[in-house]
Amino acid sequence: MGNLMDARHPEHANAQNQTKDEYVNHQMGQHSNFYKHIYHVLYTINDFLLGLWFFIGSIFFYFDSLKTWGVTLFVLASLQFVIKPTIRLVHEFHAKNHYRNEYDEQQID
């Protein structure tokens, strides 16, 4: 019965034979497309808004009465450049923590 379970869920078998870091790295390589998709959507929305702010800010720069708003949009877009790697780091952090906890739970079983 144990071999049947291992054949259907090879990651469970590996947890017993790998160190925690090996297990986490393996699982990160097999990371669910569902979670990747969520973060990919966030990343894409951020990129879209970043481009939109720069585009609108550039148009505002042609009009003296809107230059202040244009600069404000440039600053907002520049801030979003910081958000881009933050999204990637948060995703990596959450995924690794999930797989570390999963490894620990499997060691108890």
What is the residue-mean pLDDT, rounded to a whole number? Answer: 78
Strand tally is 0
Tally of separate domains: 1
Portion of residues within helices: over 70%
Q: Stretches where pLDDT falls below 50 for ≥5 residues?
A: 1-13
What's the helix count? 5
Largest beta-sheet characterization: none
Which key features would you list for this structure?
single chain, 109 residues, mainly alpha, rod-shaped, disordered N terminus
Give a written overview of the molecule.
With 109 residues, the chain is mainly α. The protein has one domain (32-108). It has helices spanning 2-8, 10-17, 20-29, 33-60, 67-108. The radius of gyration is 22 Å and the shape is rod-shaped. The two termini are 15 Å apart.
Detail the topology: elements first, then pairings.
Elements (H helix, E strand, L loop, with lengths): L1 H7 L1 H8 L2 H10 L3 H28 L6 H42 L1
Q: Brief description of this entry?
A:
The protein is 87% helix and 0% strand. The protein has 109 residues and is mainly alpha-helical.
